[in-house]
């Protein structure tokens, strides 16, 4: 029995240090994109991130974990073996941790809320999750049930979420695995959904999605991941900036060393109503045109943005008192896009280090310039984020 205890101790000791984490999400559906938008697991650079996180798995109606895209994720029946290829990056970078993310906005809250209600149903989910992680050599789970009590959830999710985290943590730690969680940046959601000290007690790292703070669902332009409030922000818009959100989580009881700040490798776009107004709060009642690879209105990957900027007629600007760029084209499309670039990512990484945060996160690495089509340096945003943060933490 002593050798079993020793093995368990050694496996638990491999848990990552809280400080200095660089989390990189990979969207499994990026393999279906066309042209330079297509990103395979083989395109990733294993040494770039401390944690690579595969998005997403889901949940079945019997509360077991669900493989959402068996053909892409598994090897069965001639599949693409996404899970196994992803965790095989550790053959190149032995210190890398590979995690599987479970949840996401599209998965909703209803089934997670039901699963978390009782110890029995939670045990079903936890057991099946660990089995899947072990089969495919993952190092842990990222719980991306980001909106307890929201999106089909129930009020008791707040308490049950912490029960789930406690039991998940115990089960994963016994296998030498880690538990990270992804949480909302929205003040009203934080107040209703999260017992922050309870979350802090059981999660290894807590990633705040500090982006998508504005978008084409609003009928005026604004930056979706501003580090600080814009001078004309009023009311609840004063809550929609990275600095406010990070400080709100810390004030609520989250230790800085466990907190991970999210940075987007994508932009949010609008179609301007008039070419005469093209700063913040410019009227814009329609989303921007779709990018050539992501094909989503109101959204463009960083690689799509920088390719577009090589065309004529694009202006790049930074609003007074702000750090992040926006770009617009008035001659034909009237598109306006808020995004991150090399300089703004540098500032965000420095901010995270200066505030003693445990890590930074990029969503998602496949939206970065994966093939070096813009500046010649592959994954420039992710590399800049990691380099700046790690140097500042030393």
From TrEMBL:
Any Gene Ontology biological process: carbohydrate metabolic process
Domain spans labelled GH18: 20-392
One Pfam assignment: Glyco_hydro_18
GO molecular function, one term: chitinase activity
InterPro entries noted in UniProt: Chitinase_II/V-like_cat, Chitinase_insertion_sf, GH, Glyco_hydro18_cat, Glycosyl_Hydrlase_18
Signal peptide positions (record): 1-20
SUPFAM superfamilies on file: (Trans)glycosidases, Chitinase insertion domain
Protein name from the UniProt record: Chitinase 3
GO cellular component, one term: extracellular region
Keywords from the UniProt entry: Glycoprotein, Glycosidase, Hydrolase, Signal
């Amino acid at each position: 029995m002593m050798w079993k205890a020793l093995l368990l101790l050694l496996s638990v000791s491999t848990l990552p240090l809280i400080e200095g984490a660089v989390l990189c999400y990979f969207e499994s559906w990026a393999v279906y994109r066309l042209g330079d938008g297509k990103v395979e697991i083989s395109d990733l650079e294993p040494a770039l991130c401390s944690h690579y996180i595969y998005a997403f798995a889901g949940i079945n109606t019997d509360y077991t974990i669900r493989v959402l895209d068996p053909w892409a994720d598994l090897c069965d029946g001639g599949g693409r073996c996404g899970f196994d290829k992803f965790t095989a990056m550790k053959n190149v970078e032995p210190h890398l941790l590979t995690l599987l993310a479970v949840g996401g906005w599209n998965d909703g809250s209803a089934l997670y809320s039901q699963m978390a209600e009782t110890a029995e149903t939670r045990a079903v989910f936890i057991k099946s999750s660990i089995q899947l992680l072990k089969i495919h050599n993952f190092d842990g789970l990222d719980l991306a049930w980001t909106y307890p009590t929201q999106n089909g959830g129930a009020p008791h999710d707040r308490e049950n979420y912490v029960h789930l985290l406690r039991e998940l943590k115990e089960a994963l730690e016994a296998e030498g695995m880690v538990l990270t969680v992804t949480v909302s940046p929205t003040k009203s959601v934080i107040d209703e959904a999260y017992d922050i000290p309870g979350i802090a007690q059981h999660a290894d790292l807590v990633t705040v999605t500090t982006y998508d703070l504005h978008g084409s669902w609003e009928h005026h332009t604004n930056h979706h991941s501003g580090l600080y409030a814009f001078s004309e922000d009023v009311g609840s818009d004063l809550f929609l900036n990275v600095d406010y959100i990070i400080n709100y989580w810390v004030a609520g009881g989250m230790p800085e060393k466990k907190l991970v700040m999210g940075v987007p490798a994508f932009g949010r776009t609008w179609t301007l109503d008039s070419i005469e107004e093209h700063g913040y709060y410019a009227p814009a009642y329609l989303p921007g045109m779709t990018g050539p690879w992501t094909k989503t209105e109101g959204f463009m990957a960083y690689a799509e943005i920088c390719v577009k900027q090589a065309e004529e007629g694009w202006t790049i600007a930074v609003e007074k008192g702000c750090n992040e760029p926006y770009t617009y084209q008035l001659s034909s499309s009237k598109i306006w896009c808020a995004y991150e670039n090399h300089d703004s990512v540098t500032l965000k990484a420095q901010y995270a280090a200066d505030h003693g945060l445990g890590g930074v996160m990029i969503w998602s690495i496949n939206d970065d310039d994966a093939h070096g089509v813009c500046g010649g340096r592959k994954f420039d945003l992710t590399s800049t984020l990691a380099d700046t943060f790690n140097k500042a933490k030393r």
